[in-house]
Structures are given as C-alpha cells and as structure tokens.
Amino acid sequence: MNNIQKTLSVAITGLLLSATLGYAGSSIKGAVINTSNTKNKVNVALGSNSKANLDSVALKNSSVTGAVVNTPAGKTSVNVALGSNNKSNLSSVTMNGSSVKGAVINTSAGQTSTNVALGKDNKASLGATNLENTKVKGAVVNTAAGQVLTNVALGAGNKTSLGAVDMKGSDVKGAVINTAAGQ
C-alpha cells in the first residue's frame, strides 16, 4: 500500500468513525445528546462547499424543547476542511435559525486537538458554541479544556473560534456561560 492509499484509508476511516449529529428542520421534544469518547480520529472534507464536523452537533431551522448536549472527550483529534466556503467544526455545537427552550451545553476536553480550515470564506470552530439567528430560553453553557489545542483559519474572510460562544443575530433569555482552560 503506497502513501496515498494509506492517507485515504485513514481519512475514510476517520470520516466513518466521526461522531456527529445533524438535524435540519426538525422538531425535537426531549434531548439531542452527542457523547463521544475520542481516542484517535481524523475527519477531512475536500472541495468546494464541504463541511468537516467531528464530535459536533449541528441544528438548522429546528425547534428543541429540552436540552442540546455535546460532550466529546479525547486524546487526539484532527479535523480539516480544504477549499472554498468550507466549515470545520470540532467538538462544537452549531445552531442556525433554531429555537431552544431549555439548555444548550457543549463540553469539550482533549489532550491534542487540531482544527484547520484552509481557503476562502471558511470557519474553524474548536470547543465552541455558535448560535446564528437562534432563540434560546434557558442557558447556553460552553466549557472547553485541553492541553494542546490548535485552531487555524487561513485565507480571506475566515473566522476562527476556540473555546468560545459566538452569537450572531441570536436572542438568549437566561444565562450565557463560557469557561475555557488550557495548559
């Protein structure tokens, strides 16, 4: 097996093993829970308009009554998106145009995590909660901890969030709590 075949095998295996939940236009009463005990994972998206989500929850135009909980913990995670208009989310919660009555909780802990978005108009989120045009009645809690955390966005118009809560055009009635710790 040559190096290209080995690289593709690792990338495909990482894609198959990545724990990611995505809901679009859903009505959920109860809980959305994504728990991943990461050991060694690789997640890669190549090309235009691709998304690389690893140990993440993505909700779009959804209504949730209850809780959205994401709790990934791991040893080594690598998440990469290459190309134009890509998003790279590692151990993150992303909500767009959604409504939550309850709590949005993201807890990310890892030893070595690398998240990279390369190209034009990309976003890279590591251990972050991103709310866009979302209404929350309750609490938004983001806790990120790790030893070696690297989050990189290269190119024009890119945005990077590491251990952060980003709320664009959102409305929260309750508490927003962000705790980030690292070595």
Task: Provide structural commentary.
By secondary structure, the chain is mostly beta strands. Helices cover 8% and strands 71% of the residues. It has one helix and 14 strands. The chain has one helix spanning 3-17; strands at residues 20-24, 27-46, 51-54, 56-60, 63-82, 87-90, 93-96, 99-118, 123-126, 129-132, 135-154, 159-162, 165-168, 171-182. The strands form three sheets. It has a five-stranded parallel sheet, with no helix packed on it. It is globular and about 35 Å long. The termini are far apart. Mean pLDDT is 79; it is low at 5-24.
Question: What would a concise description of this structure say?
Answer:
This protein is mainly beta and 183 residues long.
Quote the average pLDDT: 79
DSSP strand tally:
14
CA-atom Rg in angstroms:
16 Å
Order of helices and strands: HEEEEEEEEEEEEEE
Gap between N and C termini: 38 Å
Number of helices: 1
Shape: globular
Strand order of the largest sheet: 1-4-7-10-13
Strand proportion:
over 45%
The amount of helix comes to under 10%
Low-confidence stretches: 5-24
Q: Biggest sheet: strands, sense, closure?
A: 5 strands, parallel
Task: Find the structural class using helix and strand composition.
Answer: mainly beta
